[in-house]
Structure formats: structure tokens, C-alpha cells
Write a structure and sequence with these properties.
single chain; alpha/beta; D-Maltodextrin-Binding Protein, domain 2; MetI-like fold; five-stranded mixed β-sheet; 13 strands
Length: 487
């Protein structure tokens, strides 16, 4: 057992070194060639998180989802100035800077504040906008919280990993800061009195107040360094030519006063989104999420079963050269969160091979499912009476045919309920792939919440869809189980 533990530690160290080395090589490869690479490819890839109006959000027009907002207009102008096409990569805000560092995109935009901590990992353009900092409060508490000083000792919500989170901790005495990944979640927490206020940038606060009559905005009162609190565009380290070219476009935008026009356009788009906030209008969002969730679940379980069979047979092998890798793989996968595995596949493996988000999500979920299926299959095989092997041997079947025609069919019959549970678990747990921008049900849920400013209705719709999916699947699996038992 000690040898196995030592081997596991060595394997983990090796994997970590390879990933870090890969990330390092990627960053070196991108140094000083960012602008040339973009022009050679004819495409500028930009990461955004389209749930942050008026900076970036999605507009529902004639059943078509389109990325809009001030930041989207800015990167369109930059792409035009560079003479290349624009390719937008949607993902969680927590992933946009990682995408830049690992070379998945050429730059990231989204109200990103160029703090000293972030400058250690990425480079920034000049500040293109500074809207200031504000708090959102419930109108019912307007008399209680007249200014930021009244928030001392209260619970304040802020998006995790943002400047607003740090400022609330540093500037509001005695406050408990509650971090969440999505602004719509924070607004919902505010409306249900989970927090007293939500710290956001002033343009975001204005957008919510304009579209939600239950909210009010108060000034933060912060005295801040404009060089760290304004919005800037992020790049991988060591791309001065690209930064200079983008700064030139920003100067052009400022000289023409286009930021005001971009904000005006964003306001019009937000108003159009909120003319009709019924969930029926957004049916195609949920339908698209349903298709991707179903695709991920079915493909991942199929590959997971294949991988599970291989791993189970390897683990049961008498040869340590086969059993040890299988044991190590199963323990590592079962001992780490799926979210970490998805990030590792997309950003770690993706640093060496450019993998689309959907493909990376399927690979990660398949690899995760394979480890659990392996233990289910192994349990099914070991539960069979040893006499089955002896009977097969007496009939002249070799070990391969015995496993194929005798052992595995009976094992699958015994483990069918467990495999069904794994399938259902994959449908629900695969929702974590939204973190890398896969447009599954949870991803579309957050987009609809950001577009409509409605907190509950989209959640209810997605819950119903998930329930119907699992309910129908459960009934189907139970039917097949009954047929197998009857046979």
C-alpha cells in the first residue's frame, strides 16, 4: 500500500509539472508575437462574460442571441482597425483571465480592473472607461441605508474575484462580504434580504435601477486610484506590439467620443430586452441549453462506459503494470472535484492543443464518469459466482471469450440500476461545464437572468427541464431493467 501511495504521489507531481511546463511554454510562445499571430490568422479572439450589462450582455432579437454592450462595440472597433475578423468566446468572468494566460484567446474584456495583483499575471491596455463604484440596495431599505457609511457591520454581496469584493472588505468597517460568481445571483440575494447591498460598478448599478423598480443605487464614497479602478483590456504577458495597437484604437475611440454612443446603444438594447421578459420569449435559449446538456450526458456516459470497462479490467489484472495506473487514475479522479478537472482539460490540456469548450467539457465529463463506472463494473464482476468462470472454462472458452460472453453480460444485468444512477448524475453534474462557456442549461439560465433582470422565473424553468429529463430517463431505465429481469 505504501508503494502505491508513493506511486500516486509521483504520478500527481509528474502531471502537475507537465501542466505547468505546458502553460509556461504556451506563454513563452505567445510572447512578442500576439499582433503578428492575429494578423496572420485574420481573426482576433476575445473572451467576455456576457452577463454584465451595460458592458456586455446578450440581446434577444427575433429569436437570435447576439452579444452586445459597450465592450462589444469597443472590440468590434479594435478588430476593424486591425483589419481582422472578431471571434467572441463566452465564458464565466472567473475564467477570462485564465483564457488569456493559456492562449485560448488573444485578449479579454469585461469591466476588468487592472489591479496590481492582476498585473503580475497579465498585461493591460490603457484605461478606456471609469464609471466609478456604487452599491445597489433594496428600495424598501432606502431610509435605512442612505449612504455607504450606513452599511458598516452589514452583509455586502460582490462578485468573487473582483475589485468590488476587495473594496468592500477594505473600505466598509465590520462588513461581512459574501462572494458569488454571478451578478444576477447577487441581485437575487439582495431581493431576498440575504445581503444588505451589492457592490458593483456605477454603470451596472444604473442599468439595474433603470430596469428594476425594486432597486436603488447609492454612491460608494470610495476614494480610489483611477489607474486601478477603471476598465482595461487584458493580454498575455509580453505582447507590447499588440498592447500598443489596441491602445491606438482606444485613443481613436476616445477622440471621437464613441464611448457615449456605445453606452447609449447598450441602453437601447437593454430596454428592448426588457419589453417582454416572459420565459416563452426565451424558449430557444433553454432549447439550445437542453440540446447541449443532452449531448454532453449521452456522449460522456457512452465513452465513460467504454473507459470504465477498460479501467475495471486493468484494475483487476494480476499485472501491476496494468493495475497500478488504473488504481491511480480512479483515485485521482474520484478524489478531485469535477470543476477542477474541467478547468485542467480546457486550460491545461488546451494550452498544448486548442480544444473547443464543448469538446473539452465532453472529454472532462467522460474521464470523470469513466472512473466511477469502473468501480461499478468491477463490483458487478466480483459479485458473480466463481462457478461462472469454471463453467465457461469447462466449455472450452478462453479467458477473453469468458469475459465477453459470460461475465460482462451478467455483470451489466446486475449493475444496470447503478449505471442508470450514474447517467442521471452526469446529466445534473455536467452543469459545471458552464464555467468554461459551454452553453448548457445552467449557462443559458444565467444569460436569461442577466437579460431579463428576473431572478426566479428562469430558475424554475430550468428546474422543470432537468426534472423532466431525469424523470423520463428514469422511467426508460426502469422499463429496460424490467425487460432484462424478465428475460
Amino acid at each position: 500500500m505504501k508503494k502505491i501511495t508513493k506511486w500516486l504521489q509521483q504520478a500527481f507531481i509528474t502531471i502537475t509539472v507537465l501542466v505547468v511546463a505546458g502553460l509556461g511554454m504556451t506563454q513563452v510562445a505567445h510572447a512578442d508575437d500576439g499582433l503578428q499571430k492575429i494578423k496572420k490568422a485574420g481573426v482576433m479572439k476575445v473572451a467576455i462574460s456576457p452577463d454584465y450589462p451595460p458592458y456586455e450582455f446578450q440581446m434577444n432579437k427575433n429569436g437570435t442571441s447576439t452579444d452586445v454592450g459597450m465592450d462589444v462595440d469597443i472590440i468590434k472597433q479594435i478588430a476593424k482597425d486591425l483589419g481582422v475578423k472578431l471571434e467572441i468566446k463566452n465564458m464565466d468572468f472567473s475564467s477570462v483571465l485564465v483564457a488569456v494566460q493559456t492562449g485560448k484567446v488573444d485578449m479579454a474584456i469585461g469591466g476588468i480592473n487592472p489591479t496590481d495583483e492582476r498585473r503580475q499575471s497579465v498585461d493591460f491596455s490603457k484605461i478606456y472607461y471609469n464609471g466609478g463604484q456604487s452599491f445597489l440596495i433594496s428600495k424598501t431599505n432606502a431610509s435605512k441605508y442612505k449612504n455607504a457609511s450606513d452599511l458598516q457591520g452589514t452583509k455586502i454581496g460582490a462578485q468573487t474575484g473582483t475589485l468590488q469584493y476587495d473594496l468592500a472588505q477594505q473600505k466598509i468597517s465590520g462588513a461581512t462580504v459574501v462572494g458569488m460568481d454571478k451578478t444576477p445571483n447577487l441581485i437575487f440575494a439582495l431581493k431576498t434580504n440575504k445581503v444588505a447591498a451589492v457592490g458593483v460598478e456605477k454603470p451596472v448599478a444604473q442599468a439595474y435601477v433603470a430596469n428594476d423598480k425594486d432597486l436603488k443605487m447609492i454612491d460608494s464614497g470610495y476614494k480610489l486610484d483611477i489607474n486601478q479602478t477603471g476598465a482595461a483590456i487584458a493580454f498575455a504577458k509580453g505582447n507590447p506590439e499588440l498592447v500598443a495597437a489596441v491602445n491606438k484604437s482606444i485613443d481613436k475611440i476616445e477622440n471621437h467620443g464613441w464611448i457615449k454612443t456605445y453606452l447609449k446603444n447598450a441602453g437601447k438594447n437593454m430596454s428592448e430586452n426588457t419589453v417582454d421578459t416572459s420565459m416563452l420569449r426565451y424558449w430557444h435559449y433553454f432549447y439550445s441549453g437542453f440540446l447541449n446538456t443532452t449531448l454532453i450526458a449521452f456522449v460522456s456516459v457512452a465513452f465513460g462506459i467504454i473507459l470504465g470497462i477498460i479501467l475495471a479490467l486493468m484494475k483487476m489484472s494480476k499485472f501491476k503494470i496494468l493495475s497500478w495506473p488504473a488504481i491511480s487514475y480512479i483515485e485521482i479522479v474520484r478524489g478531485t472535484p469535477m470543476m477542477v478537472q474541467i478547468l485542467l482539460v480546457y486550460f491545461g490540456l488546451g494550452a498544448l492543443i486548442n480544444i473547443p469548450a464543448l469538446t473539452a467539457g465532453i472529454i472532462a465529463v467522460s474521464l470523470n464518469s469513466g472512473a466511477y463506472v469502473a468501480e461499478i463494473i468491477r463490483g458487478g464482476i466480483t459479485s458473480l459466482d466463481k462457478g461462472q468462470k469454471e463453467a465457461a472454462k469447462s466449455l472450452g472458452l478462453n479467458q477473453k471469450d469468458t469475459m465477453r460472453f459470460v461475465i460482462l453480460p451478467q455483470a451489466f444485468k446486475n449493475i444496470w440500476p447503478a449505471l442508470g444512477n450514474e447517467f442521471i448524475s452526469v446529466i445534473k453534474e455536467s452543469s459545471i461545464v458552464s464555467i468554461i462557456g459551454v452553453t448548457d442549461l445552467v449557462y443559458e439560465l444565467n444569460i436569461v437572468r442577466a437579460d431579463t433582470y428576473r431572478g426566479i422565473a428562469p430558475i424554475v424553468v430550468v428546474m422543470v427541464i432537468y426534472f423532466l429529463m431525469t424523470f423520463i430517463l428514469t422511467r426508460g431505465l426502469n422499463y429496460l431493467e424490467g425487460k432484462m429481469n424478465h428475460d
